[in-house]
Amino acid sequence: MEDIADRSDCITVRYRRPRGGKRKDFYLVMSYLNGTEVRFVLTAELGKAGWRVLHAVIDDESDMAEEAARDFASLHWHIFPQRRDRYVLPPVVAVWDVEGLTVAASIPPEWGGRSLPCARQRQWFMPGDHLPDPGRTLCWWPSLAVWNGWREAERQLGGKRFSTPAVIPFFTFSQWIRRADVKRAFDEKREAMRQFEGGRYGEEFRGLHDEIIAEDVAEEYARYVRGVRTALLFLRKHKVPIRVVLGDVARAQKFFSENGCDPGDAASWGDAAAVFPEMPDCVVEEYNYSGPLGAAVGAGKLRAAVSGYSHWPNSPAVDFIGASVYSGNRHLVDIACWLNPLKVDSPAAFEKVYSTLRGELARRGVKDVVFSDTIFPFRVWPHNRELALLAPGDWFGKPKGKTGWNDPCPCGSGLKYKNCCGAL
């Protein structure tokens, strides 16, 4: 594995030793897990066979810098003239054009996915109907830790095939956040933050803590979804039969009571998969319910903003299609249609999700629908830890003065404007 050196202000991932050739630094920004920006400097050396990447220096102030460094260590880098855009590459996770050169980052070929021209893979980063290979949609960038965990499980079988279908539970966000192990982890972190502040817990600190926890919740759920998709990719690649079941907290609690399991242990939730129902192609949930549609909510007509949401928003790996419903400038409800992660590479499944969402909106009398081509990361409301879906900023009326990127969003979510409706 490549060498990773952690210093006070940066993390260096070393790929090769220098040979004395001409060097060039590329100052790049990668959209990482859940849309987190990772800033880094990629240093390459020009040799007879072309550019060789020597190391990547990641800004330690970036969120998830250490996690990103571990993922960067597994990447394969390619640098070539932009005019050679039909250069065939392994599965690409990011691409940049810098001063006449193309810089592309690829995942290891053993994780699946075909080698294709860079020009074709570029289309997958753009809005539209350019769906990548099935394996890429299922898992855009696998988690190395989860992949190795399944590889170890396979090794312990001594080369034998899995004798029964692998049962993989999938928890939508509303079920995941209710799990005892998840709640305990974030409650403990919140308490640790309170104690770090010396016991001061006024409104100012409470709001700051809630916002930090909300960001952490969104990031942790993105990690969870990435882990599920990595497991599914591993099993599919190794031709293991798979059953995806829908996580249900109520059923799990009954299972724990009958079997003496600890709900605070993450492993117990895997054991409870035995009592979960088969996950359908599409699961509909409501969030942030503010009152029945058609109630006295003002003269504004009903309208909805529809967008895709993903743990990896710069990729086509959509997790659910969401609609935020308003009457005038008053929020009423959010509707999410979750895709079965095993069906995300099926155009028919996507059409079913959109059809289901359109039906849900029509049933509620919503005819004015705005569709966005942008895929957004997960966001969580600080005050109740529910998913925050986005709507155009002008739906909330004109705020007093101009809303700055770091100001509270006028929709009242508690998030910064740049992380909420300013992103739409």
TrEMBL record:
This is SEC-C motif domain protein. It comes from Desulfofundulus kuznetsovii (strain DSM 6115 / VKM B-1805 / 17). It comes from the Bacteria.
